[in-house]
């Protein structure tokens, strides 16, 4: 499937000035390639100066801003492309893969990620009252939206606090709340809004995702999961796939394989032990499905990962 369309037109002068300042802040706080937690809760900065192939991860809800460069994110067989003109929002936990493109040591990717706690969205809606967010059919739990002046201004003010640490405790929570408010009021804000409203179908799908994240090593019985979140089996399948581009079983498989990879890399488990730990009974099936997701059998994939480090 071709990448989601984004309009690659130049930023206007004021937006370009703010983008350049944000890029400078990120560059100053990321001396080498990698991702860096900051003194601001939930704010992560990253720099990459080399192109990377798709690397599957379990992404958590977040706002992703690109100050310099471009990134492609893959959800199942769909591509989402974002850059300094367009931000990316992940509204529910889901297995994704991504790559940075068109980079060099002279022009690295400079990016910012602000993790989103769904409980904060719920609290904001409760405090603000009706926000006039229109109800729409469930869409993907991942979307790209055009970056506007108010959003970039709020994100830049948050990043500037890294230069005045004494102000972080008082001002960062206020600015983060403003950013969440602007996300809710954006053209696709209904995707976050629906997930935060108790008893909506989107909220129930987010609860199903949360349950799978905590029980992925157990055998999955769709009837039981549907009862857990108070949906019919057919509605669960339809809404789950609409949000994640995969079925609950496909989602569980990706969770299992990613956790197995982590166990082998971080804890030194061999492939058989890692497969059993995450719920596989057949080592051959585990190896086959692992190769399909990561592009190589476990031993070869781990060797490649260790070499890249």
Distinctive features:
2 domains, alpha+beta, Arc Repressor Mutant, subunit A, 10 strands, four-stranded antiparallel β-sheet, 12 helices, 309 residues, globular, disordered N terminus, 19% strand, six-stranded antiparallel β-sheet, Jelly Rolls
Through-space gap between termini: 31 Å
Low-confidence runs: 1-7
Main β-sheet: number of strands, strand sense, barrel status? 6 strands, antiparallel
- Helical percentage: 40-55%
**Whole-number radius of gyration?**
20 Å
Instruction: Quickly give the structural class.
Output: alpha+beta
**Superfamily at the CATH H level of the largest domain?**
Regulatory protein AraC
Q: What would the CATH topology of the largest domain be?
A: Jelly Rolls
CATH top level of the largest domain is: Mainly Beta
Shape: globular
Query: Per DSSP, what share of the residues sits in E-state strands of 2 or more residues?
Result: 15-25%
Organism: Pseudomonas kielensis
Keywords: Transcription, Transcription regulation
GO molecular function: DNA-binding transcription factor activity; sequence-specific DNA binding
Domain HTH araC/xylS-type: 206-304
Structure overview:
The chain is α+β, with helices and mostly antiparallel strands. The chain folds into two domains: 13-195, Jelly Rolls; 198-309, Arc Repressor Mutant, subunit A. Helices cover 48% and strands 19% of the residues. The chain has a six-stranded antiparallel β-sheet with strand order 1-2-9-4-7-10. Strand 5 (70-75) and strand 6 form a beta hairpin. The chain is globular.
